[in-house]
Amino acid sequence: MPAPEQALWEALGWSPSAAQLELLQHLQEELRSWNSRVNLTRLVEGDDFWITQVFDSLWPLVSRLRSNPEAPLRCIDVGTGGGFPGLAVAIAFPQAHLTLVDSVGRKTQAVQAMAETLGLQDRVELRCERIELTGRQKRCRGQFDLAMARAVAAAPVVAEYLVPLLAPKGEALLYRGQWSEGDQRDLEAAIQPLKATITGQQQRDLPGGRGQRTAIVLQALESCPKTYPRAVGIPSKFPLAGGGT
Questions:
Q1: Is the pTM above the cut of 0.85?
Q2: Helix 105-117 to helix 18-38 angle, to the nearest 10 degrees?
Q3: Residue 243: per-residue pLDDT
Q4: Long-range contacts of the stretch 112-121 (C-beta < 8 A, 24+)
Q5: Which of 113, 114, 61 has its CA nearest to residue 85?
Q6: Rounded distance, CA 240 to CA 245, Å?
Q7: What gap in Å lies between CA 44 and CA 64, rounded to an integer?
């Protein structure tokens, strides 16, 4: 199976070790195999995998990868789908422990099997449940250094999912596409009742004309009120930016 050109890693600003590259290639094989049975994602081959899956999962984390990738890191990937960004993060950060959450059982079963085949079972845990429930579990609420969500819902909704999961000084990473002033206003309004603030924002164009991406980083100013996340379905139906309570 052809590996991506070195130019891709140069564009990312980080290169995997030989062992990590082998794991990423193995992940592609596993994803291809499982996708034929479960329909996890259409982004499996060539640049669809290497750019739209792997590169897009890792680019907001390059500063962490450059500084101290071996540091212990407790991460949660909300709405993991076919395993991204969670499995890519698990490979890139050898000391990271990942909790991957999705409400679709056939997807979590497939991703669990992929993690085991890759030898990541000691560091990757799957939870099949709605994230509104995860955020109220003692084992998860307030426990994570990094909470991530990619292509899940509107930013105000994702913020309500992620902020309750953060440990003190933890960060929520929102993977977004193009970003407007209206998006910014909505997110700023939504995070006020969550007692959180925006601490970082970066944008870049993916290689190969794959589109613009925006990464938003949130931090909790204090403990998230116990009101949040609200009951299953409420955050998406009545986003905080729209006046929901």
A1: yes
A2: 150
A3: 44
A4: 113/30, 113/34, 114/27, 114/30, 114/31, 114/34, 114/83, 114/87, 115/83, 115/87, 115/90, 117/26, 117/30, 118/23, 118/26, 118/27, 118/30, 118/87, 118/91, 120/87, 120/90, 120/91
A5: 61
A6: 6
A7: 26
Quote the tokens at residue 31.
Answer: 């994803």
- Nearest Cα neighbor of 150 from 131, 175, 177, 132 is 175
Q: Rounded CA gap, 199 and 20, in Å? A: 30
Structural domains in the chain plus CATH codes = 6-242 (3.40.50.150)
pLDDT, residue 90, reads 97
Query: How far apart are the C-alpha atoms of 242 and 83, rounded to whole Å?
Result: 30
CA distances from 13 to 8, 60, 61 (A): 9, 11, 10
- Model pLDDT for residues 131-151, shown as the tens digit of each residue: 999 999 999 999 999 999 997
Eight-state DSSP code of residue 182: H
How far apart, in Å, are the Cα atoms of 9 and each of 15, 62, 133, 202, 207?
5, 11, 37, 19, 11
